[in-house]
Every structure is written in C-alpha cells, then in structure tokens.
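Notes, p. 3: input format for complexes.
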Amino acid sequence: MNESYDVVIVGAGPAGISAACILADAGIKTMVIERGEYAGSKNTSGGVLYGYNLAQILPDFVARGCPIERNIVESRIWYLSKEAGLSIGYRDSIFANERKNNVFTVGRAKFDRWFAEQAKKKGALIVASTVVVDLLKDASGKVTGVVTNRQDGEVQAKVVLLADGVNSPLAAKTGFRPELKPEHVALAVKETIELPSEVIEQRFGVSAADGVTTEVLGEVTGGMDGVSIIYTNKNSISISVGANLAQFAKTKMKPYEMLEAYKLHPMVAPLIAGGKPIEYTAHWLAEGGFYTIPQLAGNGYLIAGDSAMLFNALHREGSNLAMASGKMAAEAIIAALKKNDVSKQSLSSYSKAMSESFVLKDMNKYRGFPGFLYNTHQLFDELPHVAQFAAREMLTVDGVTKKHKQKLIMDEVKKKIGLLNLAKIAWRGWRSVK
Amino acid sequence: MTMKIEDKLFLDRFKVDEESHLKIIDGEKCKKCESQACLFLCPAYVYRPEGDRIAINHEGCLECGSCRIGCPDLNIEWKFPKGGYGISHKFG
Ligand SMILES: Cc1cc2nc3c(=O)[nH]c(=O)nc-3n(C[C@H](O)[C@H](O)[C@H](O)COP(=O)(O)OP(=O)(O)OC[C@H]3O[C@@H](n4cnc5c(N)ncnc54)[C@H](O)[C@@H]3O)c2cc1C
Ligand code: SF4
Ligand code: SF4
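Output follows (526 residues plus iron/sulfur cluster):
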C-alpha cells in the first residue's frame, strides 16, 4: 500500500463520502479508507437524512437509486411519563408532493454503501477493511499521510481529511481532538424491528412510500438526559433510546434494559406488536455541542462531521452537518491544492466557510442547550410526571369543577417542582436556544 | 416478552477475531474499583464479573467506545478490531 495520493480521507460515512464525491468531481486523486468490510457496516443512526444536503452532493440522488426507506410526511414529538404520554404531530401533504424527500429514512448500512458506490463511480478509490491507526507527520509536525494496520500500510497524502466519526481512538492518539469525556456523548442503542409494510402503513396511517418520525423525551430515560426515537422504514421500524454516558455510569441503568422497558411502554408497544427484531446496534451521539468542536484545520489536515463534534441535539441533525462540512472541506482542499499550499493558514478557508454557514451558526446558537439538558433532570422525571397528572385530571370527567382541578394541578406542580423552579427551567431552556 | 442481551446479540453478524481488541490494563485496579462502570454501561454486556476479576467477551462488542472513556480509571486498552472484523451491520 506504499502509495501516494492527493487526498486521503479517513472514514466512509456521510462526511467522508461527501468530500470524496466533490474531490473526485474535480479530478483530484482521492483515497477513502474505511475500517468496516464495506462502507456503512459499522454505522447506525435513527435513519433520517435530509434531501437538501444530499442534493448538494448528488443532485440526482433519486435517479441514482438512493436506498430511501420512507419519505417523511409527519413528524411527531412525544413527552412520556412511565405509563402515559403527550403527543403532538405535524403532517403536511406538501411533504408528499412538492417537497418530497425533504426528510427521508434510510438504513445506514445500505445508504452509506450506496453513497460510497457513487463516489467510486466518480473516480475515488474506496479501500475497505482497513483501519487507520496513526498519522504520518514530517519534522515540522505537518500531516503527510496515514498509517494503516495493513502490511506496508503507509499512504502518503498531500492532505488528510479526518472523517472518522465521534468514536475516534485516532483523535485520542494523535491529539487532533482531545479524547472525549463521558458527558460529551450520549450512548444510544437501537433495534430494527421487522414488520410487513402494510402493517406499518396501517399503524401510522400513511401510504406505501410515506412514513412518520417520532422524537421522544421524558421518563423513558429514567431521569437521565436522553432521547429516543421511533422512525418508520419500508419493512421495519427503527427504535432507539440513548442517554448521556456520564449519567449511565452514575445511574447504573443498563442500556439494553432501558430499551426493553421502552418497548413495553403503552404508547410504543402497539406500534411494534408482532414485529421481529432483526438487528441490535449501539453508537455514540456527539452531544458535547459547540464548546467541544476542535480546531477544524491544521497543517496538512482537516476534520469534518462527527469527528469534529458537529451535531445539533435539538433538531437531531448530524448527517446533514457531516455532508455540509465534508463538502466545505473538499472545496477548501481543492483551493489549497491549486495554490500548492496545504498549510494551516491555507486550509483555514474551511474554518471560515464553516463559520459563515448554517453549520457553525446553528451550533453556536444552541451552544447552551447540551448543558441545559444535562443539568435539568426535572425534564426527565418530575416534569413528565406532572404533565401526566395535569392531563389525567383535565381529561377525567367526574363531576369535579374545572376550577378545583386547576387547583389540584397547581398543588402538584408546587409539590413536585415548585413554581419558581418551573419558571427557572423555562427561562434557562429558552435562553439556551434563543 | 423482554429480550435478553444474549438474544439481541444473536441478531447481529460478527466476524470474530480470536485476538481480543479489548484488554484490561491492570486487573488489580478492578479489584479496588468502586463503580465497576464497565459492567453496567456496556450495551453488549462484554464485561462480566468472574470471581474477583472481570472477564471480557470481546466477541459481542458493538464497538461504541463507551468502556474506553467510561471506566473511571481509564483502565481499558481499546482498539478497533482489525479491518473487516467485528460487527457488520446489515441494516444500520
Ligand atoms: C442512534 C443515533 C441516531 C441518529 N439519528 C440521526 C438522524 O436521524 N438524523 C441525522 O441527521 N443524524 C442522526 N444521527 C447522527 C449521525 O448518524 C451522524 O452525525 C453522522 O453519521 C456523522 O457522519 P460522519 O461521516 O461524520 O461519521 P460516521 O457516520 O460515524 O462515519 C465515520 C466512518 O469512519 C469509519 N472509521 C472510523 N475510524 C476509522 C479508522 N481509524 N480507520 C478507518 N475507518 C474509520 C467508520 O467505520 C465510519 O464508517 C444519529 C446518531 C445515532 C447514534
Ligand atoms: S470500570 Fe474500569 S477499573 Fe472498574 S472494573 Fe471496569 S475496567 Fe476495572
Ligand atoms: S466498545 Fe462498547 S460494546 Fe464494546 S466493550 Fe466497550 S462498551 Fe461494550
């Protein structure tokens, strides 16, 4: 493998493949190294992708046979207590028609593999089953290539793009991003549950190509800062639950037991009844937020996607930030190679483009949000309980006056949280996203 | 109808490397470890108590990285499995 490339990309996820497509289009000799036996074989997500960002890389992604599971026409948000839940949803026929594929679901093992195929068709070389274990550097510290675990496994490159995702022992070893602390990630476990497509369509009230996403907060994460999701695929339902790793370590709740309890929740169980689990996966979410983003470019290297901690926890956006950052990194590389200057200063056009784009602007806007969730356990225990109490009172018709019911609810709020506390939570929550 | 972790892992496809990619650096530290976080936070129940030591079932590792940073003593030597080994997602 003792070869030389213009660009070596570590990782064939959305960030790395997006960059590879743009670079290959520009005729730049690009190699993507992936540790899995094929692109996507190590990856997992809820499964939502955003058509806008994918079209920026592949405008004709539908014609190219993108393995879309379902086009999302309805988004639901649930707030659950242990045995009940509030639900709001928004369905709009515009998403079935003019704005089709604005949001759609995929299985990442299939999608990433297909995406990598497209980069290959454009001329990038994809090398699978190969782990990058170190970076090559010259005497001045400039990155000049990668070391893989293969025999004679060094590859020289003018520029290295690190797109190796959130779990990066490479980052810890080489220091391009400090090793993460448990509070910087959420650990999520996911089960894919197979069901006949007609059953899914019936249960969610959608037509054959369409689907629904449900984001879930509340007591399902046992008082921990966490979320869960229920997304529809063609012949399966993705169900995932995750929480902050530091809180997992503290509460000693087991991730798989939390998932099992979740599957039994009265709002969840009917949706997956009779389904057959076909896969169980685990992965981190890069939840550290704006303050954990490392320096994005250095001498001879750049960092994109989850590896750079680009994840918007409030809107559950990660894949699109990965694609957009991969694209901007590729554009900066193209400009730098043209100038024959891959110094930090030259590659910093990437950092600048990122700062001016929605990627870092959104990350900055929500910089206080991860901390707000982490520090407000009431969102995941007392509040869902109080919400349940209030809804139960108001919906039970038993001859008690509404005025008295309101008083009962206020008493419960005061007892469980306190009015001042509730106001503080609302204020801090608003401040963290305003 | 709750599913045990062993049954969940049975759904997955693994190409197992005989050599473990996970290693406890200092077994003595585990004996004094109060939290034993690895036993709880691992989503694949890879770490299991065996007498006064911790056994590692590396075959079922889902490669999330949690034990590496979640062990309060950073007492786990953690590598990715060799290229192409370990878990291979079918759906993702
Ligand atoms: C449970 C869950 C649900 C999610 N849901 C959503 C969602 O619905 N929508 C959304 O937009 N985002 C979602 N995300 C986030 C999203 O998955 C990520 O933001 C996105 O995958 C980041 O892309 P990436 O290319 O940066 O990294 P990754 O997709 O992680 O790709 C990194 C690649 O690098 C490879 N690699 C790593 N290290 C090496 C190495 N040393 N050598 C060779 N190869 C290596 C990996 O095998 C992998 O293929 C979710 C994440 C999780 C965990
Ligand atoms: S958490 Fe770390 S130190 Fe404690 S038992 Fe597990 S591996 Fe040993
Ligand atoms: S990497 Fe994740 S799945 Fe593997 S042993 Fe560590 S905690 Fe368990």
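Chain B is about 25% helix and 20% strand.
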